[in-house]
Design goal:
It is a single chain. This protein is of the alpha+beta class. It has six helices and three strands. Helices cover about 55% and strands about 15% of the residues.
Length: about 100
């Protein structure tokens, strides 16, 4: 009579969560949601206050900024923003930014 034993090895919750996300192909969506949720933390309060809409679809970050002057500044800094967001996640999630 064989009794299956529980795996008694403990792993950090972070590793378990990562394994879960990979197993169910949720990692990309989780990372996209993280970037949207932490937009203020990543970009700062002044930019977040003027961001009316933000979402990610197929590697493209869509932004609606209420201030035209800020929007123009962000257009000029697109590549820096892409690099900043991708470095926050640790992989390439954002490929392009579109201002709507």
């Amino acid at each position: 009579m064989s009794v299956s034993a529980r795996n008694t090895k403990s792993i950090p919750i972070k590793d378990a969560f990562e394994t879960f996300l990979k197993a169910y192909n949720l990692k990309k969506k989780f990372n996209e949601t993280y970037l949207v949720a932490y937009w203020e933390k990543i970009m700062g309060n002044s930019i977040a206050k003027r961001t009316d809409k933000i979402y990610i679809k197929n590697g493209v970050l869509f932004l609606r900024i209420s201030s035209s002057s800020l929007s123009q500044e962000l257009v000029l800094a697109k590549s820096k923003i892409v690099n900043l967001l991708n470095s926050e996640i640790g992989e390439e999630i954002i490929k392009e930014i579109v201002f709507i």
